[in-house]
From TrEMBL:
<dbReference type="InterPro" id="IPR052534">
    <property type="entry name" value="Extracell_DNA_Util/SecSys_Comp"/>
</dbReference>
<feature type="coiled-coil region">
    <location>
        <begin position="65"/>
        <end position="92"/>
    </location>
</feature>
<feature type="region of interest" description="Disordered">
    <location>
        <begin position="156"/>
        <end position="189"/>
    </location>
</feature>
<feature type="transmembrane region" description="Helical">
    <location>
        <begin position="21"/>
        <end position="44"/>
    </location>
</feature>
<keyword id="KW-0812">Transmembrane</keyword>
<keyword id="KW-0472">Membrane</keyword>
<dbReference type="Pfam" id="PF05137">
    <property type="entry name" value="PilN"/>
</dbReference>
<keyword id="KW-1133">Transmembrane helix</keyword>
<keyword id="KW-0175">Coiled coil</keyword>
<protein>
    <submittedName>
        <fullName>PilN domain-containing protein</fullName>
    </submittedName>
</protein>
<dbReference type="InterPro" id="IPR007813">
    <property type="entry name" value="PilN"/>
</dbReference>
Length: 189
């Protein structure tokens, strides 16, 4: 007696079970792969959105900072202009007493018989034109200007006789001496 075992239907069922499991595993892996890919895509998209928000915030802050820098530069330029104006006002304010002092010294040093006809000032140099009755009065006037504390050594540029009158017309330049400036500067020139 021989026993015949038919394994084919069993093998066939087993093969179908393995095929189903394989196909299920394949589908499950495909689903897991797609889900993982979609998850990674969402994660990277979310990270990209956050980075774009950061970039937009940085760009906005950078633009705001640029505006602030521009306004600060405008304020600094305005401050420089105001400081320059203040310096001019201070120089003018400081020069007021000096101008009065110069005129007082000119009046005090004026010798008898001498008249000034023109006075011009260029920087710290005064140019005087005047009339005197004789050459001695012109010399006395030069000495008086040289002795005045507001002036340095005067420089006589010309003396000529006034036509038709018995007078001398003279021109001279005298540098102003700043208050507190030593007299030694006169000896050097």
């Amino acid at each position: 007696m021989t026993i015949e075992i038919n394994l084919l239907p069993w093998r066939e069922q087993r093969r179908e079970r393995h095929s189903k499991r394989f196909h299920l595993a394949l589908v499950a892996m495909a689903v897991v792969g797609l889900a993982g890919g979609a998850g990674m895509t969402l994660y990277y998209q979310h990270a990209l959105d956050i980075q774009q928000q950061r970039n937009a915030h940085i760009t906005d802050q950078s633009a705001r900072l640029d505006r602030d820098i521009r306004s600060i530069r405008e304020y600094e330029a305005q401050i420089e202009r105001l400081e320059a104006q203040i310096a001019v006002f201070q120089r003018l304010q400081e020069g007021r007493p000096q101008t009065v002092h110069v005129f007082n010294q000119l009046a005090e040093s004026l010798e008898e018989g001498v008249h000034y006809t023109q006075l011009t000032r260029q920087g710290e140099l005064l140019s005087l034109t005047g009339l005197a009755e004789n050459n001695r009065q012109v010399s006395d006037q030069l000495r008086a200007l040289g002795a005045a504390p507001a002036f340095a050594v005067p420089n006589l540029s010309e003396v000529e006789s006034d036509q038709g009158q018995d007078r001398r017309r003279f021109s001279l330049n005298v540098p102003q001496r700043m208050p507190g400036q030593p007299l030694a500067e006169e000896d050097e020139s």
